[in-house]
């Protein structure tokens, strides 16, 4: 199975060349302000993509998904799976998605470190094959000018669940791929720190119990 991963497109989706594949995953931050107009434009683009399965979560810029979830739900095209502390099964793959990240300024889906955010990670099913979160686990593709900013609680849960693939974004400057035990980690942030869409989507080939990046 060929999985195309991207995140943090920030209204620049029309400038991105998206490879074909079986599954497309977008790990949040479609927009800059999360307005109806911005989400509608991003979802129209998503509906045009040729992938058999398209799976999305919200990000800290995508305000409407948190403030007006009923309105946001009406903007999701048919055949697009929107996950919010929820899951779906695609061609036998058990996929779980959550938009939350440790508190950073006054953005959407902020949660305090500790018990508040741990409640979200605790409900990730043990049999998850693909985990999608907006933010990274601590110490893995999460480095900024001020140091590591990923979530310690997410890292702990990741080592318990041990999914085959974990896709996230949020930290634009840490784009890339890493490995943690049996899990392939993908920071698929499309935009760089200047909000220019310079990072191409990351394509993953999943065969059996293993994942590898397609170069």
How do the helices and strands line up, and which of them pair or pack?
Blueprint: E1 2-6, E2 23-26, H1 36-48, E3 53-56, H2 64-67, H3 69-75, E4 80-82, E5 86-90, E6 93-98, E7 101-102, E8 110-111, H4 115-122, E9 130-133, E10 143-144, E11 147-148, H5 152-161, E12 165-168, E13 176-180, E14 183-187, E15 202-207, E16 210-213
Parallel strand pairs: 1-2, 2-3, 3-4, 6-9, 7-8, 9-12, 12-14
Antiparallel strand pairs: 1-15, 5-6, 10-11, 13-14, 15-16
Give a structural overview.
- This protein has 215 residues and is of the alpha/beta class.
- The chain has one domain (2-213): Purple Acid Phosphatase, chain A, domain 2 (4-Layer Sandwich).
- The protein is 20% helix and 29% strand.
- The strands form 4 sheets. A 6-stranded mixed β-sheet has the order 4-3-2-1-15-16, with no helix packed on it. Strands 5-6-9-12-14-13 form a 6-stranded mixed β-sheet, with no helix packed on it.
- Strand 5 (86-90) and strand 6 (93-98) form a beta hairpin.
- The longest helix is centred in the N-terminal third of the chain and has 13 residues, at 36-48.
- The chain is globular and about 40 Å long.
- The chain starts with a strand and ends with a strand.
- The model has no long low-confidence stretch (mean pLDDT 96).
Instruction: Report mean pLDDT, rounded to a whole number.
Output: 96
How are strands sequenced across the largest beta sheet?
4-3-2-1-15-16
Tell me what the CATH architecture is: 4-Layer Sandwich
By CATH reckoning, the class would read Alpha Beta
Task: Briefly characterize the structure.
With 215 residues, the chain is an alpha/beta fold. The protein contains 5 helices and 16 strands. It has a single domain, classed as Purple Acid Phosphatase, chain A, domain 2, CATH 3.60.21.
